[in-house]
Amino acid sequence: MKNNENNMIIKNARLVKTEKIINILVSDGVIAQIFEGEFCEFKDFRNYKICEIIDARGNYISAGFIDLHVHLRDPGFEYKEDIESGTKAAVKGGVTTVCCMPNTKPVIDNPETLKYIFETKANCGVLPVAAVTKSQKGEELTDFIELKKAGAVALSDDGRPVENCELMREALINAKNNNMLIISHCEDLTLAHGGVMNDGEILKKINLECNLDLKGIPNEAEDKITKRDINLACETGARLHIAHVSSKNSVDYIADAKKRGFNNITAETCPHYFTLTDGDVLKYGVNAKMNPPLRSAEDKEKIIEAIKSGVIDCISTDHAPHSLDDKKDENYIDLCKLREAANGITGLETMFSLGVTYLVKPNHITLDRLIELMTVNPAKIIGIEKERGTIEIGKAADFVIFNTDEKFIFYKDKSYSKSRNTPFNGFELYGKILYTVLNGKIIYNF
Length: 446
Prior knowledge:
Strand content: 15-25%
Number of strands: 20
Number of helices: 15
Distance between the termini: 30 Å
Shape: globular
CATH architecture of the largest domain: Alpha-Beta Barrel
């Protein structure tokens, strides 16, 4: 091991939790040794042939971020994003592991598509989430055993709910029997049908002032399925993860289940739900259209409280790249185009910085809590905590080194994603990513 060509030293890095300066020896892509104190050519390192040294210069180091909810669009929609470009955007944002959603073409509901994903070039770890139902039609369950054997880490019909209650119950029982996680897209399609944004005072204002008749999506569209799926998970004992929580009542349902001791239920939210509200549709137009939609200021505050209290377990991006044609507009805010524009925004390059800027700097949470939401917790939820998620000897050498004090401006034109559909263009942010390391190799540096 000592003469291996793949040895690396990271020196003078600051641990988030303790603020201590550490030095890390990486060998064969794994953390081999950790020493505290300023780096001074530790004698323990002298017997190693070191091929690379990173001087962190007192900046923070964390385990690489883990994003449980990413749309890579590949196969089938590579004009929006592909595995290579999406994971390149991920590492720029400090993300070293992504879970990719199954609403591709073909849908990830078979071993062949899973094989394609694993064999396609990627810049970070890609863990595929397979569909709950065949072709995501909500009619017939996929073969959970076969999909797990082929490498699926979870199951979801994300982009759609499993509408049939009986089928969802059957899916949860099947998932429990095979020790699999189900990620639920909570949306009552009958209540949400035709809606373009949150159903609230802002929508009324837009319709009145612009002489439009845009339809809203009520909180109940999310709340109804959240409550149903939680009840089913409590009944069956299956592991359930609630995706992209945006509604205050959904937060209450999750909190109540946890209070009653149901630790099989976890939940995520996304940066746009703790940074923006439905009023921002007036500023950013189609680039503020997503599903679930941006909610009211009251909902946003409830999401922040849920992050603080632990009701929300992790932060994910729901990275949803779309072409200019899909979004119908880019710079000019034409609210009429909300009807036709696709849902979703990109998020991999801004997740951490938005967390620092809108959660840590205003003292809603500590930096340590933010890191927990992006490393430790998602690793546990997806079942990779033995290999990733913390900086410990024997674990994978996935790191992100960052500065939380220096401001920078995010420009979408410099994004590594193929798409540019973000409302955060031009935002002044904290939390600059300096290095991303994957399995002991530098894959991004500022």
